[in-house]
Automatic annotation (TrEMBL):
GO biological process: DNA integration; DNA recombination
Keyword field contains Ribonucleoprotein: no
Protein name (record): Integrase
Classification via PROSITE patterns: TYR_RECOMBINASE
Amino acid sequence: MALPVKLICRTGQVHADGTCSIFVQYCCNESQKPLFGTDVKIPPTYWDKAGRCISERLPANHGDYNELNDELKRLKKIVEDIVTYAGLKKIPLEARAQFAKTHFSPTFDFNDIETKEKEAAEQQETEKKNRINVYYQFDEYIKSKKRKVSKATLTVYGNVKSHLLAFEAFRGQEISFDSFDFSFYEDFVDYLTFEHIHIRRKTVQTGLKLNTIGKTIKHLRGFIKDRAKRKIVKPIDLSDFKIPEEESDAIYLTYEEIAKIYQTDLSEHPYLIEYRDLFVLACLTGLRFSDFSTLRPEDLQRDMLYKKQEKSDHWVIIPLRHEAKLIFTRQFRDRIPELTNPEFNRHIKTIGKLAGIIQIVKFSYKKGNQTITITRPKYDWITSHTARRSFCTNEFLAGTPVELIMKISGHKRTKDFYKYIRITPEEAANKIKELWLARNDMKLIKESVTEMELQYN
């Protein structure tokens, strides 16, 4: 049975040099009739339509007609062989046209098909493995988030992946999506608590704090749920993947302490002045390090700071106190120094010490069933985030409505905002007493002389 493969010359499509191209055509079906180029061109008058070949009358300056016909027969035979091979491989008829187009070349060899099929099979196997490879999928997850979350959050995602890799190496067992059950959760949390080795402030430490472990579990859950929603993996029951957390111990600075820092004489340490002023600016605006370290002159309009927060991608508008406006216009209107967070934290501790913020502060945290207590001078607990926490706490103590503070701080949930409030039980009691006095609520009965008072007289 003759195969539906033939030679054609498009006599109706003449090139500028007066020649037409000759093709091999495979008539797979009515809608699929692909053409395969031969690089043979002749004047249309020398194409023999009946014989589907080049006429012997072809002028010698266009080539030897016998050699050209032999080349055309060879190329036609290649297409026929590919179509025959497709039939032997039981490739569906409607797919054979594309199969022929994929594999045809003037230098075709049947080994090419075998090689390409092997490469395609290997590629499919690789893609199949990647679909269920946790780390490949984590990389894909991070890529999908690059335009949606801050750089800091992307770093957190990378840390979660690193923790998984370290845990895999520790226990010598590959982690797959099938691994994520309650036993994995318990072993992973135990590893992060007691075994994970990391470097903090150039010191090798073992074990992470509870809230850091909680953040790792939180983002691991988010990653797994995302892959399930995209139908990359089957849904996984994560109800037992509880997020461990504890109230973090962190200080805030009172307005008096912030004033002490602002008024500290740094004439012997002039390189610290811009760090000091930037910290005070942050204390008076509630901005994160990622935001106050990237302020621009145009962010100040009508005595207000207009800033799009990097973490939340949310605009905040912050009124400036006298000192904050003075710092911004005098020190940083033209340029915010290029800073790194570790460098900033190191210098602000030094400034706190020079300012006399030396009250001894004791904090504790959980490590398994143990309570670890650390005692340091207050200045040694100061970080860039202390500024934001101080702003929120001071405004809260001053009676500013929480909803208004959140508009400036950029918090979207009240629950998250209250994590920033750092007041002692005594401060809370005094604040309530102030409110009672302001409302004249120190007495239950408001008469000038109550019956009970008369009994005591």
